[in-house]
Amino acid sequence: MKISIVFLLLTALFINTASQLLANQADDKKSVADALDRMGQAMEHKDVEALGAVLHDDLTWGHSTGATQTKEQLVAELGGAEIYEQFKFSNLAIHIYGSTAVVRCTADIRNGAPPAKPMHQGHFICLIVLVKGAHGWQIVGGQRAHVDEKAS
Question: Is the link from the previous residue into 115 a cis peptide, with omega within 30 of 0?
Answer without folding.
Answer: yes
